[in-house]
Amino acid sequence: MEADPQSRIERALLAKDYAAVRQLLRNRPAPALAEVIRALPIEQQVVVFRILPRHLAGRAFEFLDLSHQTPLLKAMGQEEVAAVLDHMAPDDRTMLFEELQRPSPSA
5-44 as b/e, with b when 16 or more CB fall inside 10 Å? Predict the structure, then answer.
């Protein structure tokens, strides 16, 4: 019995088989990629964003909600963040920046 795609991706990440991860992810539409990413621990999310082609990483990032985007941005290096943001649609990038500038409700 073949494992579900999410399990295959997780196993490949644990095995550090990044070529397999890239192969499993490369033909998925951005919303489906965002679903895969959401289900992973933050450390593996960062690895996936490093593996994905920049344009695809940017598109998938747009489909994550702010509660997933913020920790991911904090976990990535400055150059990775710049590359992802550079490949986002301008409207989505502006919306993200506006959300990040809002005071938190607990403040």
Answer: eeeebbebbeeeeeeebeebbeebebeebbebbeebeeeb
Residue type, 23: Q
More confident: 33 or 101:
33
Q: Which two tokens stand for residue 12?
A: 């490949």
* Superfamily name with CATH number, domain 5-101: MgtE N-terminal domain-like (1.25.60.10)
Nearest to 88 by CA among 101, 72, 103, 104: 72
Q: Would you say the pTM of this structure is higher than 0.85?
A: no
